[in-house]
Amino acid sequence: MASIIRNTFALVLAGGRGSRLKELTDRRAKPAVHFGGTARIIDFALSNAINSGIRRIGVATQYKAHSLIRHLQKGWTFLRSERNESFDILPASQRTGDGQWYQGTADAVYQNLDILERYPIEHIVVLAGDHVYKMDYAEMLMQHLDSRADVTVGCIEVPREEAVAFGVMRVDEQDRIENFIEKPNDPPGIPGRPEMALASMGIYVFDAAFLYDQLRRDAAEPYSQHDFGRDVIPYVVQHGRAVAHRFGRSAIRTSENAEAYWRDVGTLDAFFEANLDLTSVLPALDLYDRRWPIWTSTEMLPPAKFVHDEEDRRGMAISSLVANGCIVSGARVRRSLLSTGVRVNSFADVDGAVIMPYAEIGRGARLCNVIVDSDVRVPPGLVVGEDPALDARRFRRTDGGITLITQVMLDRMT
């Protein structure tokens, strides 16, 4: 098994804008958005690769990639070529000579074939860089080899009514994929469980030579969208052997009976809920598990500090995650996540909040059910979360009742 993993390359596709996160991705790609207080979304896919034993990794970037590339350079360049390891950052650079950026997920890999073919690799794991989960890719790779599949597709079980937003698989009793449909109106059910569907996680395992052939074939197709889910996978299903890998087989859980936790944090509501999931007493996604750590770029900062202990001015945080460098100064924080370097000033009340790095909450502010973007300066006395109509006029308010606050929005108020 060790030799198989050693000859495997993990390619993370991290070029997407993530437009459903609205203003959170105005300055950064979705995989670069902060998550969990100290990490970025992309750190989960990268950490899974490292923890699975994969030591050759590439990241394909495109949309507003500066902060993502800076993060990768600071936190992920510890892999060493003299140990047969590698870490490649692959910005879209019009490599095919036709003046085109990446046209789809398959094209993002195709345009980097010259780099991939330099490495002595036998298998490629293609990963989406914008989901939050813990998974042992080695288990999926072993199923791929044992089943002699041309492609193995990672999948999760979801209610059929929710599967309309995914690529969905119809499988037989042995989980061989019979049909792959992108965002179907009527998703096929699972054999024996017709109320559930198998949805693609955007994770694929290929033999390297087979993948290269398929990408060259797809690149020559004039009507292809050059996308794995729309083009490459359906073609392999029809002309080859495609197998589904159920996430429950390889999920890293907090306990034997715990949920197999996977989240697409592509909307503001989902992003908010996934962050606040971490404040549970026993969260399904365990950031404290030293056996499967989430690696990231860390700053040398002092511990969090809580100051003042008066009756109406007590620095405290309850059912919350508070990162290094934070100062809670005579304020109350409840069921919230404070990212690196956040300051909450006296008499402020924060309840149900995801606050991004180096934001500052002004004296006497009251915030409920909010996401506060990085480096934002919330003015003293601002109240958000109590008047939905007012919040919607001043900020971005979702259908789920979550309010996003950015500095641009605050500047428009003055």
Automatic annotation (TrEMBL):
One of its GO terms (molecular function) is glucose-1-phosphate adenylyltransferase activity. It catalyses: alpha-D-glucose 1-phosphate + ATP + H(+) = ADP-alpha-D-glucose + diphosphate. The record marks 62, 101 as: Could play a key role in the communication between the regulatory and the substrate sites. Keywords: ATP-binding, Carbohydrate metabolism, Glycogen biosynthesis, Glycogen metabolism, Nucleotide-binding, Nucleotidyltransferase, Transferase. Gene3D superfamilies: Hexapeptide repeat proteins, Spore Coat Polysaccharide Biosynthesis Protein SpsA, Chain A. Residues 10-279 form the Nucleotidyl transferase domain. The keyword DNA-binding does not apply. Involved in the biosynthesis of ADP-glucose, a building block required for the elongation reactions to produce glycogen. Catalyzes the reaction between ATP and alpha-D-glucose 1-phosphate (G1P) to produce pyrophosphate and ADP-Glc. Belongs to the bacterial/plant glucose-1-phosphate adenylyltransferase family. PANTHER family: GLUCOSE-1-PHOSPHATE ADENYLYLTRANSFERASE, GLUCOSE-1-PHOSPHATE ADENYLYLTRANSFERASE-RELATED. This is Glucose-1-phosphate adenylyltransferase. The gene is glgC.
